[in-house]
Amino acid sequence: MFGTSAAMQVVRQKALKAAGTNVPVLIQGESGTGKEVLAQFIHSRSAWSTGPFVKVNCAAIPGTLLESELFGYDKGAFTGAYATKPGRVELAHRGTLFLNEIAELDPALQAKLLQVVQDGQFCRIGGQEDKHVETHVICATNRDLENEIEAGNFRADLFYRINVIGIQMPLLHERAEDIPILADYFLSSFNARFHRNAPPLSRKTMQIFQHRQWPGNIRELENLIKRYVILGLEETASSDFPRPGYAQPNVDTSPDGSISLKNVTRQAVHELERRIILRALETNKWNRKRVARSLSISYRALLYKMRQAGISPKSTRSRPDTPAASLPPAD
Questions:
Q1: Could you list the residue range(s) of the whole structural domain that residue 206 is in?
Q2: Which tens digits make up the pLDDT trace of 278-301?
Q3: Phi, psi of 253 (to 5 degrees)
Q4: Does pTM top 0.85 for this prediction?
Q5: Using N-to-C axis directions, what is the helix angle for 261-283 and 299-309, rounded to 10°?
Q6: Residue where a domain stops, chosen among 231, 246, 261
């Protein structure tokens, strides 16, 4: 929910209005855009914020088990049901029920969920009486539910019930001005979690971040900052994409214009490894044992990669691009 972009201002305004009511909310957006965070934000500002926030990942629970997870079962409902077990719907009474990846629900479960959303009624597996529950239902999906309806995979009546307030989460590259704020938040959070003191990223790296497409959205940014904090090397924060001024691998094409993707990928990986190792050597004053530990590789593997990358011995540190025939003795 961090950010000052126009896209996030719209999201926050809708979320605050949704929090003031008890009508169902549908959050749509690609993976990693922060749908669960938004659901928690709405819950925390609702009248039932002191109640439970019950999360169900519909894609992570097999369909054969999802019904019992959602609605629970009575003792003796099936073999092995030695005691009554309340489901997630019942546990969310006077709180929030967050159904993530709602598009993964089987049609039969969609019908039972429709009853919950419509009048708060449900029945445990093996139960004889309907139960009543008061809960704020928030659903999320990374699919286009209207397309799923056309394909016959999702009930239209359930879609209209859960989509009373619809919120579309923007892609990270659509809110580029928020990236520095998010990066600073993750940096502070991971420094505290891992007891590190990684400095803020350089302006150059942040500019690269703001021109990145970010196919993994906020989750991808989060993981990059985590990698940077743990390894302590700024290159690791942007090692998955090229930076301005970086030497790019030569792309050799055949006479017919075809390109060997395998060769290009191998060249790119070797160049990236070389730059990360060089920066680690500089950071650790060329103590290769410390470098190996910081990169989480063995000392022998580091020596091999240095030789493979042609990194100069200590006598030519000032000229790191000079080819090295051999490596200096171990530290």
A1: 172-246
A2: 888 877 778 888 888 888 888 888
A3: -110, 150
A4: no
A5: 120
A6: 246
